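Task card 7
Instruction: Convert sequence to structure tokens.
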Amino acid sequence: MSKKVFDVVHGNGEYKAQDGSTKTRWQNVGVVFKSEKGNYVLKLDAIPTRRNEEGELWLNLFVPQEREQKPKAQGFREPQTDTFVDDDIPPF
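Output:
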């Protein structure tokens, strides 16, 4: 079984952080796996088009980090029918 060893990312511009510093905007474009035979395999999910001034395309490899799981959105709740009823609207 192959093991994921790197995230492949591309510096896709910059943005201003809340503290006013300039940060790189990273876009995840693929992964690198290490196969059972020991060789590395690159899988690209996207091909970035943004290049530097020299026309070069650079990709970075980062060790995958555990990400915090965001809480899932609450499910749909049925409206309470005892709070508002408009008898002028015909049911459909």
